[in-house]
Write a structure and sequence with these properties.
This protein is α/β, with parallel strands linked by helices. Helix content is 40%, strand content 14%. α1 runs parallel beside α2 and α9 packs antiparallel against α10.
Length: 284
């Protein structure tokens, strides 16, 4: 049986997933295939590196620093979020909170980072082989929110957030051969996305990046379809959906430590369902 985990990210809501991965590390739960979108990709990098607890600061401490998230960044650099500060300055070998890249590379699990090309609009699936020590640009690309950030360059190609290309990549996990898939959502499972805010942001980038703007306008529809597909697979015992259902929905840039820590704890508790899910037989 090949197991997979798909983490859809969601900005600072991604701390829900951080709680899930910490539980998995505590109980030695591993996946053969790990697919991350946006903040989900950063969660997976930390998980595969075996760094329990490392992610918490990225959600509850660093967002309060002007160097990472501020209008000062927007005025001086053109991006509200300085992703290089997060995955470069802080995460490199001599940084404040380094990623254990050697452990990440040594881990036998497959790792896929989802991004979306800003010009062509095509989805891009990066892998561990696309990462090098102290060069984590693929994480920056996957987390690059349109209109909030300028598109992020990787090898001369500009990228936006992976959610524009494949917001709920459960089909990707199936294509990779996964038999059992854990899907990490950061919104309540029955909450449908709407396209109101996406359409507003799309207008801001439409002139330079019309394909990306079109994808952004369709993100809500694709997300809702992806969750609906996952629910059908859940009925067959092939997918386990973990979502913060007992908490109110929050925004992707919410900076309320109490709320964020509640999301982390909710994720940690939700992960207790994973062992039984792996043991249960699927249905045809």
């Amino acid at each position: 049986m090949k197991t997979g985990i798909v983490d859809v990210g969601g900005g600072l809501r991604g701390i829900f997933g951080a709680g899930i991965y910490d539980y998995c590390l505590e109980h030695q739960i591993y996946f053969d295939d790990c697919i991350g979108v946006s903040a989900g990709s950063a969660n997976i990098a930390c998980y595969l590196a075996g760094q329990k607890g490392r992610d918490i600061a990225f959600y509850t401490e660093y967002p309060f620093r002007r160097q990472y998230m501020s209008f000062w960044n927007f005025l001086t650099k053109g991006s509200y979020l300085d992703l290089h500060y997060l995955y470069g300055t802080l995460s490199v070998s001599d940084g404040e909170n380094p990623l254990d890249f050697a452990a990440l590379q040594k881990n036998s699990s497959e790792m896929t980072v989802v991004a979306s090309e800003a010009v062509s609009g095509k989805v891009k699936y990066f892998h561990k082989s696309d990462m090098k020590r102290d060069h984590y640009d693929v994480l920056c690309a996957s987390c690059c929110l349109p209109a909030i950030c300028k598109p992020y360059p990787v090898n001369g190609v500009l990228y936006y957030d992976g959610a524009l290309g494949d917001p709920v990549p459960v089909q990707k996990a199936l294509d990779d051969g996964c038999d059992k898939i854990v899907l990490v959502l950061t919104k309540p499972r029955n909450l449908l996305r709407d396209s109101v805010q996406d359409s507003r942001f799309a207008r801001r980038i439409a002139r330079k990046y019309p394909k990306a703007a079109q994808n952004l306008c369709q993100r809500a529809e694709h997300y809702n379809d992806g969750v609906a597909f996952a629910k059908e697979l859940e009925k067959k015992g092939k997918v386990l959906i973990l979502a913060p259902d007992r908490l109110p929905a929050i925004g992707s840039l919410t900076r309320d430590k109490k709320v964020l820590l509640a999301m982390y704890q909710c994720g940690h508790e939700s992960a207790t369902a994973i062992p039984d899910f792996f043991r249960s037989p699927g249905k045809n």
